[in-house]
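can u do me a favor
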C-alpha cells in the first residue's frame, strides 16, 4: 500500500507505532520497522544517554528506518532533539507541545519532522514551519490528549494542509485504517494495539489490563491541570478523578502522578501506576507479533478500500 507516507519514510505499510513513554523501546520499535511499519523509540522524560543506548540497540536489530518521539514537556527535550540529529535518525515525531524551535535543525540534518497536532491551527503552523507531515491525534488516544475526536479532526486537518496527514486515536484494526483513509489520511499511528505485541516489553500487569479492558474501561484524568491523560479506569485513576472533582489542587494532583508511568510500565504497580491506553483498548484482546498485527490490519484495510479510489 503506497502512499505519501510510505514514500516519505521509505516504509512498506503506512503505519507508525505510537511513541509511548516508558513502553516504546528498541525491541518494539525494531520489530515494527522490520515488519514494514515505522517503529518509534519514545524519549519520554528519559535522559539522552538512556535513549542513545536504545537507539543503538534498535540499530543492531534492524536496518529499516525508525524514529524518535520527543515529548516536548520533558526537561530533556533539547538533548533528545539533538540526539535525533547525532544518531542520523530517519524521522522524529513530537508530542505535548509545539516543536517549532527544533524544526530547522532537524530539517537541515535530513531528519523528517512529524509533529502530533490536536488542532487545525497547530497543523497549519507546523506546515508553515516546514514539517514533512502531521499526526492528527484525536481524543480517543491514550496518554496526553486534545479535545477533538479523530473523526472530526482528521478531515479538517486534511482540508487545511497540503502535507500528508497521519490519523491517530482509536485505530486498532483494518476498519480503523480504512476509515482514516476515507477521512483523508495517508497513514495511521497506532499505540494501544502495539502495546499488545509480543515484542512490547511492558509489564505483564499492564498488558493484562489492556487486554482485559472493555469499551467503557478508559477514563480521562487531569483535565484541570491542562494536561488531560487517558488510561485504564483503575482504582487509582478513579481516585485521581475524585480528587479533582472534590476540589484538590492541580499541584497536589501532579505530585500524586509523578513517576506513575514508570510504576505502571516497569513495575506493574496497580495501586499507584497510570496505565495509559486508548479508548480502543476494548477491541485489543490478543497478543500477536508486530508483523501479524500490521499484516492483519492492512490485509483488511486493502480489502475494504479496494474499488474506492485507493
Ligand atoms: O504526547 C502525547 N501523549 C503523551 S505524552 C505523555 S507524558 C505526559 N504525562 C503527563 C502529562 C503530560 C505528558 C503521555 N502521553 N501525545 C501527543 C499529543 N500532543 N497529544 C496532544 C498533543 C499536543 C497538545 C498541545 C500537541 C501540541 C500541543 O500544542 C500546544 C501548543 O503549544 O500550541
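np, heres the sequence
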Amino acid at each position: 500500500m503506497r502512499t505519501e507516507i510510505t514514500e516519505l519514510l521509505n516504509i512498506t505499510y503506512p503505519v507508525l507505532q505510537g511513541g509511548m513513554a516508558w513502553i516504546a523501546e528498541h525491541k518494539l520499535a525494531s520489530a515494527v520497522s522490520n515488519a514494514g511499519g515505522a517503529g518509534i523509540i519514545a524519549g519520554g522524560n528519559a535522559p539522552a544517554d538512556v535513549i542513545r543506548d536504545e537507539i543503538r540497540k534498535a540499530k543492531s536489530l534492524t536496518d529499516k528506518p525508525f524514529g524518535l518521539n520527543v515529548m516536548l514537556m520533558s526537561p530533556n527535550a533539547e538533548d533528545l532533539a539533538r540526539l535525533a540529529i547525532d544518531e542520523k535518525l530517519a524521522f522524529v515525531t513530537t508530542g505535548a507541545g509545539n516543536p517549532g524551535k527544533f524544526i530547522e535543525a532537524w530539517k537541515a540534518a535530513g531528519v523528517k519532522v512529524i509533529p502530533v497536532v490536536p488542532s487545525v491551527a497547530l497543523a497549519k503552523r507546523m506546515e508553515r514551519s516546514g514539517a514533512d507531515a502531521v499526526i492528527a491525534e484525536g481524543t480517543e488516544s491514550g496518554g496526553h490528549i486534545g479535545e477533538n475526536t479523530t473523526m472530526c479532526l482528521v478531515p479538517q486537518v486534511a482540508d487545511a494542509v497540503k502535507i500528508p496527514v497521519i490519523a491517530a486515536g482509536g485505530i486498532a484494526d483494518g476498519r480503523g485504517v480504512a476509515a482514516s483513509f476515507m477521512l483523508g489520511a495517508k497513514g495511521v499511528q497506532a499505540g494501544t494495539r502495539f502495546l499488545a505485541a509480543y515484542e512490547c516489553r511492558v509489564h505483564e500487569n499492564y498488558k493484562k489490563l489492556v487486554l482485559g479492558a472493555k469499551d467503557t474501561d478508559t477514563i480521562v484524568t487531569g483535565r484541570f491541570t491542562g494536561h488531560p491523560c487517558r488510561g485504564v479506569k483503575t482504582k487509582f485513576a478513579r481516585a485521581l478523578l475524585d480528587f479533582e472533582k472534590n476540589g484538590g489542587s492541580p499541584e497536589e494532583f501532579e505530585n500524586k502522578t509523578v513517576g506513575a508511568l514508570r510504576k505502571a510500565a516497569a513495575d506493574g504497580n496497580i495501586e499507584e501506576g497510570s496505565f495509559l491506553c486508548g479508548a480502543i483498548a476494548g477491541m485489543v484482546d490478543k497478543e500477536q507479533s508486530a508483523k501479524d498485527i500490521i499484516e492483519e490490519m492492512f490485509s483488511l484495510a486493502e480489502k475494504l478500500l479496494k474499488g474506492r479510489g485507493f
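The pocket of TUI is lined by residues 21, 71, 73, 95-98, 116, 118, 122, 137, 143-146, 227, 229, 276 (CB under 6 Å). hope that helps!!
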